[in-house]
Amino acid sequence: MKNIAVIGAGTMGNGIAHTFAQFNYNVQLIDVSQLALEKGIATISKNLDRMVAKEKISEADKIKTLANITTFTSIKDGVKYASLVIEAATENAVLKTKIFKELDEVCPEDTILATNTSSISITQIGAVTSRPDKVIGMHFMNPVPIMKLVEIIRGYNTSDEVMKFITDLTYKISKVSVEVNDYPGFVTNRILMPMINEAIETLFNGVAGVAEIDTVMKLGMAHPMGPLQLADFIGLDVCLSILNVMHDGFKNPKYAPCPLLVNMVMAGKLGVKSEEGFYVYSNGKKSDTVAKMFR
Ligand code: NAD
User: Fold this and answer.
1) How does the average pLDDT of the chain come out, rounded?
2) Domain boundary residue, one of 141, 160, 181
3) Is there a single domain that holds both residue 92 and residue 15?
4) Could you give the angle at the alpha carbon of 71 between the alpha carbons of 69 and 76, nearest 5°?
5) Is 196 found in the same domain as 176?
């Protein structure tokens, strides 16, 4: 396997492209937005600089990694020679099924189609293709170049052969995989999102402030980051979509998104990517400054 196409150059897509390129795969990075592609490459370059500064890779490795990535604004052009496509576009079931219909039409017959979705059914996505045995969930964690885990999700029709192939590939890029079954939120977000949602409810109910809630979870539970800060890093729009998928999928009110989260997303406060969520950010840097609304 030499060519891996990645769809979406946002938070996750650029990290996935970075990781495969660093392990010497040819990566075709595809996004509908030219600006997103430019931003994605700039982020990869900045993250590689950081690795060079920490002496984890050499300057030559950085140059080689960037040279392994080619960008495209058209799916058809980008996936022509791909053995594997990893879709990391916006978390929206309608959008993802549309992308997979197109992928099924334009990719070579034996191309494996993976999605990095955080919550949407792999079985549902596979069902719109003529190759559901080759559709699989490959759920990377943020930030991809650093986080070890890949949650591999077996759709109802995913073949054993494809499961094994993706598990082996994960190992080749120095990650650790865990196989899970296809139910809303899988394992990661089934457990993480109710915690984040509850932290937002706790804030919404006035039990404590942003910094206080995060401090309790950091110092009291030994979490490296508080849940509200983590939500900002994931993207509040992504958190909301995942909760909505779990709420719809299980019909259980415990997954209903907190009205404060809904309001923040409607107001365009999406966390790090919009420079304001529960905290304010500049240049994507970790921040201890709580947003004005919560001071
Ligand atoms: P993002 O908003 O940062 O990036 C999404 C990108 O997709 C944008 O650049 C957008 O222009 C592009 N896009 C939209 N429609 C497209 C299309 N038709 N073709 C090509 N590109 C298109 O989102 P993200 O946070 O990177 O999330 C991407 C996926 O990864 C989602 O499914 C999300 O649930 C999942 N995920 C996110 C995280 C996280 O921490 N953010 C973690 C694990 C998984």
Assistant:
1) 97
2) 181
3) yes
4) 120
5) no
Of 181, 206, 230, the residue that ends a domain is 181
In this structure, what token pair is assigned to residue 146? 């650093």
Residue 226: domain span = 190-289
Say whether both 102 and 221 belong to one domain: no
% of the chain with per-residue pLDDT over 90:
95
Please indicate, yes or no, whether residues 253 and 134 belong to a single structural domain of this protein. Answer: no
Pocket of ligand 1, candidates 7, 12, 95, 120: which has the most ligand atoms within 8 Å of its Cβ, to mutate?
12
Whether the Cβ atoms of residue 133 and residue 165 lie closer than 8 Å to each other: no
Decide whether any atom of ligand 1 lies within 6 Å of the 199 Cβ.
no
d(C-alpha 274, C-alpha 224), whole Å = 23
Asked whether 117 lines ligand 1 (CB < 6 A), one says yes
Give how far Cα 184 sits from Cα of 132, 187, 188, 239, Å: 18, 9, 10, 13
Q: Both 25 and 153 in a single domain? A: yes
Q: Which residue among 238, 246, 273 has the greatest number of ligand 1 atoms within 8 angstroms of its CB, and so is best to mutate?
A: 238
Atom nearest to 118 CA in ligand 1: 34
Count of structural domains, the chain: 2
pLDDT recorded at residue 283: 83
Q: Is residue 294 part of a domain?
A: no
At 4-46, the pLDDT tens digits run 999 999 999 999 999 999 999 999 999 999 999 999 999 999 9
What's the mean pLDDT in 216-233? 97
Regarding the beta carbon of 231 and ligand 1, being less than 6 Å apart is answered: no
pTM beyond cutoff 0.85 = yes
Q: Nearest to residue 199, comparing CAs of 67, 64, 85, 294?
A: 294
